[in-house]
Design a protein that fits this description.
This is Small ribosomal subunit biogenesis GTPase RsgA. Its main location: cytoplasm. The chain is α/β, with parallel strands linked by helices. Helix 2 packs across helix 8. The radius of gyration is 21 Å and the shape is globular.
Length: 296
């Protein structure tokens, strides 16, 4: 049989097929091959009952995340707080670069918008910037309406929530998945960020789609990203980069750079370019990691 793994817990893997849940284990050769089934994996398995089965094969993944450990993710709802903690385009762009690299669609959810209702200029500025690039932006000032809008993106998709610590990921998950009662933590005033707890991951059906029932990553390190790859992960750069004089233009110092020209005429946001330069410097200074050779 073939199905999708929807929960992994204590060495057991739970697979859904035609609204039936099969409890299975992984064959011993998975460990030898250093393969670990992940929630979201499509697998083939054999089973004599709903409680006794074995996974035979993992089918190729289109992507995978480490936190939470989920494979074949279609989209990530990136929760960005406007206040407490304050909005950070730097953090948001780090998330978006990571998702672009993995080929995962991003939906931006601006939380705590009711706390900046008197000054809507920040919200409009963020919306204008990211909608122009092509990212959907949902503003959580009217939570009920925002939730209904968010649900329209769920059918037929495997969705994970992510975002900066303290942004309200758990609160939003509890609203998406009534009865989940996921623990939320108060913001640490001294650190200006929230805390997060580790749980096992389960995919729960919502609006004919699947949602991971635990918040995802809250920070990103660019360990597997190259300097040449970075500019290709900014969609608005890609749109104009074919007009650059040099094919592998870094968009920093080369003459006739279409990206820098687009920034000057307002086609590309200055904040995005500023964050690009910070990321580029980070990658340039990143030390290569060398693996020690095993002694014979």
């Amino acid at each position: 049989m073939r199905g999708q793994l929807i929960k992994a817990l204590s060495g057991f893997y739970y697979i859904e097929v035609d609204q039936q849940i099969y409890q299975t284990r992984a064959r011993g050769n998975f460990r030898k091959k250093k393969l670990t089934p992940l929630v979201g994996d499509y697998v083939s398995f054999e089973s004599t009952s709903l409680q006794d089965g074995y996974i035979l094969e993992l089918f190729p993944r289109k992507n995978e995340l480490i936190r939470p450990p989920v494979a074949n993710v279609d989209q990530v709802i990136v929760v960005s707080s406007l206040v407490a903690p304050d909005f950070s385009s730097h953090l948001l762009d780090r998330f978006l670069i990571h998702l672009e690299q993995k080929g995962i669609e991003a939906i931006l959810y601006l939380s705590k918008a009711d706390l900046v209702a008197e000054d809507s200029s920040l919200i409009e500025e963020i919306k204008a910037c990211y909608q122009k690039i092509g990212y959907p932006v949902i503003v959580g000032n009217d939570q009920d309406r925002a939730l209904e809008e968010l649900k329209t993106y769920l059918p037929g998709k495997l969705t994970v929530l992510a975002g900066q610590s303290g942004a309200g990921k758990s609160t939003l998950l509890n609203r998406l998945l009534p009865g989940l009662d996921l623990a939320t933590n108060e913001i640490s005033e001294s650190l200006g960020r929230g805390k997060h707890t580790t749980r096992h991951v389960e995919l729960i059906e919502v609006m004919d789609g699947l949602v991971a029932d635990t918040p995802g990553f809250s920070s990103i390190d660019f360990f597997d990203l190259t300097v040449n790859e970075l500019p290709k992960l900014f969609p608005e750069f890609v749109q104009v980069s074919d007009q650059c004089r040099f094919r592998e233009c870094s968009h920093t110092h080369e003459p006739d750079c279409a990206v820098r020209a687009a920034i000057e005429n307002g086609q590309i946001a200055q904040s995005r370019y500023d964050n690009y330069l910070v990321f580029l410097q980070e990658l340039t200074n990143q030390r290569p990691v060398y693996r020690k050779k095993n002694r014979k």
